[in-house]
Specification:
Layout lengths: L3 E4 L6 H12 L4 E5 L6 H4 L3 E3 L5 H10 L4 E4 L5 H6 L1 H22 L2 E3 L2 E2 L23 H20 L3 E2 L1 E3 L1 E3 L12 H12 L1 E4 L7 E5 H13 L11 E2 L3 E3 L1 H11 L4 E4 L3 H9 L7 H7 L7 H16 L1
Parallel strand pairs: 1-2, 1-4, 2-3, 4-5, 5-7, 6-8, 8-12, 9-11, 10-14
Antiparallel strand pairs: 11-13
Helix pairs in contact: 3-5, 5-6, 7-9, 7-12, 9-12
The chain binds nicotinamide-adenine-dinucleotide and 2-amino-3-ketobutyric acid.
Length: 315
């Protein structure tokens, strides 16, 4: 990776990966982009372009202008937002990806597109979910993510575009808020614990999902994109995980640091239905074998770091 374009760069992942990659690859070698320019360090401290991924010409112009060799494609509509507006989820997630892949084919760029645990559905085995298994998702987000994995495979097989991607679980972070997903409760809970010592959870107790702390997610993107291609049997559909917990377990971990913290429940049945259709825990053996995936943070280490960082931010 020498000249990198990040789409959807003002979101939860983009807000952190752009700053981190600028340190590694050089300030002028990481171009942030989104469909509009928001107030954000990413847009204000380095090169920024307006790129709406549903507009192929805007993607092509940015790639040409900056002689891009790698696209980190993060522009997307996530699960909960996608269920409220399935047409927008289809448009951004499918047409946006198609535009990025076409430009990558023409300009010979590598492409990283994160997939998600949302590719799985109610008929998928729920525990230690294998990488290759039944995938019949019941959300529009999940449908676009499965189709996206296949489309990326297709561009590699047919056109030799260097496409790579991992199935992220819920990501927990303290820089940008999450963008409308089913796993967002596991971020909000830390903010509310510090602000109000109280959180009302929109998922039921016993709802287990895979999760990961953002520093591990950033490492995953760089590690996979820098991996030796000859070792990659799979390319666009790597299961990766760092931990699996339910609301009770994250709440108990927070209570160790904030004894007065209390959580109650007001379940959102629409979001609960999505969570119930996803695995309890993934098997990420192939990522470990093929490119050395090895997360650093478990629930205890993440909770300590989240509370330390957020205390500084919120004070
Ligand atoms: P996010 O919602 O925080 O950010 C996505 C960004 O894309 C937003 O800033 C949004 O404004 C932008 N965007 C939307 N439509 C656009 C368009 N037409 N053109 C350009 N930009 C547009 O999402 P994220 O959490 O940063 O996720 C990035 C990628 O990682 C997505 O593909 C997502 O599916 C995947 N992922 C994320 C998680 C997670 O927990 N955050 C988990 C699994 C997979
Ligand atoms: C969401 O909940 O939609 C995302 C994801 C797991 O893809 N966090």
């Amino acid at each position: 990776m020498k000249k990198i374009l990040v789409t959807g760069a003002l979101g939860q992942i983009g807000s952190e990966i752009v700053m981190s990659m600028r340190k590694t690859y050089g300030e002028d070698n990481v171009i942030a982009s989104s469909r509009s320019k928001g107030k954000n360090d990413v847009a204000e401290t380095g090169i920024f372009e307006i790129v709406d991924v549903t507009k192929a010409q805007q993607v092509a112009d940015a790639v040409k202008k900056h002689k891009i060799d790698t696209i980190i494609h993060l522009a997307a509509i996530l699960s909960a937002t996608g269920e409220n507006n399935p047409a927008a989820a289809w448009d951004v997630n499918m047409n946006g990806l198609y535009n990025v892949l076409e430009v990558a084919r023409e300009s010979q760029c590598a492409v990283c597109t994160p997939s998600s645990i949302a590719v799985f559905g109610p008929s998928t085995p729920k525990d230690n979910t294998p990488q290759n298994t039944l995938m019949r998702p019941t959300t529009m987000y999940g449908v676009t993510k499965v189709a996206g994995e296949l489309l990326c495979d297709y561009y590699f097989q047919k056109y030799n575009v260097d496409t790579r991607g991992m199935r992220f679980p819920g990501l927990i972070s303290n820089v940008a808020l999450p963008g409308g997903g089913t796993t967002d409760y596991a971020v909000h809970i830390y903010y509310e614990a510090l602000k109000n010592k109280k959180y009302t959870c929109f998922l039921e107790k016993g709802t287990y999902m895979d999760m990961m702390y953002m520093p591990d997610a950033l490492d995953a993107i760089v590690q996979l994109m820098e991996a030796d291609p000859s070792k990659l049997v799979d390319r666009n559909a790597f299961n990766i995980t760092a931990m699996s917990f339910d609301p009770e377990e994250i709440s108990a971990e927070i209570k160790k640091h904030i004894p007065a913290f209390e959580m109650d429940y007001d379940v959102n049945t629409n979001i609960q239905k999505i969570a119930d259709s996803w695995p309890n825990s993934l098997d990420d053996t192939e990522a470990r074998k093929q490119w050395g995936w090895n997360p650093k943070y478990d629930l205890a280490a993440m909770t300590k770091d989240m509370l330390d960082k957020l205390s500084l931010k919120l004070n």
